[in-house]
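Tutorial handout. Part one gives the primary structure; part two gives the three-dimensional structure as tokens.
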Amino acid sequence: MFSIGDIFKKAVTGVATWAGNAIGGPTGGKIGAALAGSLMNKGGLGADYQIQDTSQAPVSYGGRVGFERADEAGSVRGGPKTADGRDLAMYWDRKLMTAMGKDAEYKKKLT
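Part two.
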């Protein structure tokens, strides 16, 4: 029983042999057939080949990298808290009084 792969291999080999004969005569035909055989089979002019393994082991940090749970991802621990109006008023009053006190001390030193 023929498979599509076998038919394709025979067709490519035949075309390469014909092209080699057309370009370089009988020697070109032999080279074309050998080249097609090496491309379509593991054998041929070259030796059997294997795909190069380029995999790498994952990097180990020795447990020195922090761990975040999925539900905590992106959250800020101890992040900003909402302040009410009284707290804001007291905060700005304190800043104003401190600034006015420093201004008064500065003016005393100049006079």
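Part three, for discussion. The CA atoms of residues 42 and 48 lie 5 Å apart. The longest helix spans residues 4-40.
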